[in-house]
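Predict the structure of ribulose-phosphate 3-epimerase.
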Amino acid sequence: MAVSAGYSQASRPASAFHGCVAKIGPSVLDCDSSMLATEAGRALRAGADYLHLDVMDGNFVPAISFGPKVIANLRLHHPKVFFDCHLMVQKPEEQVEAFAEAKAVHPDTGKNLMQFIFHIEATEPRGLTQTIIDLVRKHGMLVGLALSPATPIEQLEPYLHQVDVVLILTVVPGKGGQSFMVDMMEKVRYVRSRYPDKEIEVDGGVKVHTVDEAAKAGANMIVSGTGVYKVDDMALAIATMKRSVELYGNGLSEEKVSPLRYDKDIFG
Ligand SMILES: O=C(CO)[C@@H](O)[C@H](O)COP(=O)(O)O
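Done. Here is the predicted structure for ribulose-phosphate 3-epimerase.
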């Protein structure tokens, strides 16, 4: 079981448990990006449920990471993997078509494997949030809205019912390896209490010693970069985080949670 460092350990009331699937998505931002496909495969074999792909344009955030071409190439290596694309870019509307190149559908389940998440801070001041939600859907991708720490959760209210996922940033976006902002859990609780079935993702500073806070607040999609790629035992870190969501979010008993270690067939 994961241990929280210094945060409230208040247990979650049974009525607050949710049925959303616990999923762990390593952020590849801090992996050896010269071997992106291999590094992605390493995390998937270690138990990752999806890949979180951080796209940075040097404008919305100072850093530049990679873009849609790299993601389309990555798709050739991982045709059955869910790509959760987090666009930290100033003009997401200009990227929709290019990202659709990496679209895929799982051949067995029919599940859409491509999610396009953009920041409301980039679009709301220009009155484009709804337009981009519609554009992403038109291009056949799942759509999500991301929220930076300084932005109040109420800004998402008009869109919450429409999006597939809400991404709550638990650090200031821009780089990996920062400290988890536990006060962002209020936003997670806000969304979970109103939308029991919504995918809620947390991103930034999530590690084995902070994940319990996110799990207790109701997040079911856990992004972790350095907490996965910069630890000795990647599989143990992923399993520990997943078990935290199953225990504190889904309310499963210790006997029913996922095993601490297994080899996953990433092509299955
Ligand atoms: O979007 C971002 C940062 O902007 C994240 O996805 C980070 O890359 C996560 O890294 P850690 O905080 O888990 O190290």
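DSSP finds nine helices and eight strands in the chain.
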